[in-house]
Amino acid sequence: MKVAGRRSGTRLRDHLAASDPGLLRLTAGLRTVGAIAVTLAVLAPVGADITHLVAGAMTSMAATFSIRERRRGAQAVTLALGLPVAVASVSLGALLSQRVVVGDVFAVALIFCAVYGRRFGDRGMTLGLVGFQMYFVSLFVGATPEQLPALWAVMAVGFASSAVVRFAVVPVTPTGLLARLRQAFRVRLARLVSAQIALLDAGPDEADKALEELRERTARLHETALMIQSRLEEGTPDEPTARLVQRRVADAEIAAERLGLLLLSARSAERADTLTLHLPGAPA
Q1: Where, by residue number, does the polypeptide cross the bilayer (predicted)?
Q2: Cα–Cα 20 to 30 A to 38, which of 74, 192, 252, 263?
């Protein structure tokens, strides 16, 4: 029973690692839901009305999912800068809500600034997105100038909740993230080898399906290798370690691809090339 339980747990961990490398999507979802839950847990007991609850939930959601930086220090700075941007955006939304033409012109200008902010990197993109989202929130809840002080307090709670969940409840370290990505690479590599074996054993009627599976798993392995490459600088203690990890990942990926090419060559009268592995619909 214990052995079967351990095997089931291992299969579940491998499935999660392969389907969500680094658990990035799971982490993002937990952070967003957690930030909303903390915000509502703080606001509801003090008698906040539905308008403030909605504004707080949307603020915490925007403050959580819009962060793009990878380093914790940079994330904290962006969160700190996001609050005054959100306050200014909501205030302008409330002040311009009765001036339709001016408000529409400002909304278009705000959209342009939000998109143009990408020119200034992840922080510019995040602040632009927060500004646009919070302007929309002010219009959605029908904010008026008289409601602004209460909305400012609600937004402060939302940003604080996002920070608590991000840095205390669901923390992510660069080293831990890189370790999970490497685990995902190993699992996807094993699945690619399994697909290669299945292609080798497939009959004439099953060859097309097995080849499609091989292409898909090759692409997923390549995707994971690129994700590891993008995290080496933050996730390794020094440059020699980063180079060692990079070389090992590249060697494993190249070896798996060459093995796949050999299998395809063995099953085909024509010589296979890398396009056969990576392009859907390419002739086998």
Answers
A1: 21-44, 50-67, 74-94, 100-117, 124-144, 150-179
A2: 74
Q: What sign does the dihedral 14-19-23-29 (CA atoms) show?
A: negative
d(CA 20, CA 25): 7
Q: How many residues does the chain have?
A: 284
- Please state which of the four CATH numbers 1.20.58, 1.10.287, 1.10.1200, 2.30.30 is assigned to the domain occupying 174-278: 1.20.58
pLDDT of residue 282: 53
As a whole number of angstroms, the distance between CA 43 and CA 142 comes to 19
Token pair belonging to 224:
């994971």
Domain boundaries defined on the chain: 2-169, 174-278
- What confidence tens digit (pLDDT) does each residue in 106-146 have? 888 888 888 888 888 889 999 999 998 999 899 888 888 89
163: how many CB neighbours lie within 10 A of its CB?
Answer: 19
Quote the crossing angle between the two packed helices 24-43 and 50-65, to the nearest 10°: 150
More confident residue, 195 or 104: 195
pLDDT of 40 over the 90 cut = yes
- Note the pTM of the prediction, 2 decimals: 0.82
Q: Greater confidence, 272 or 200?
A: 200
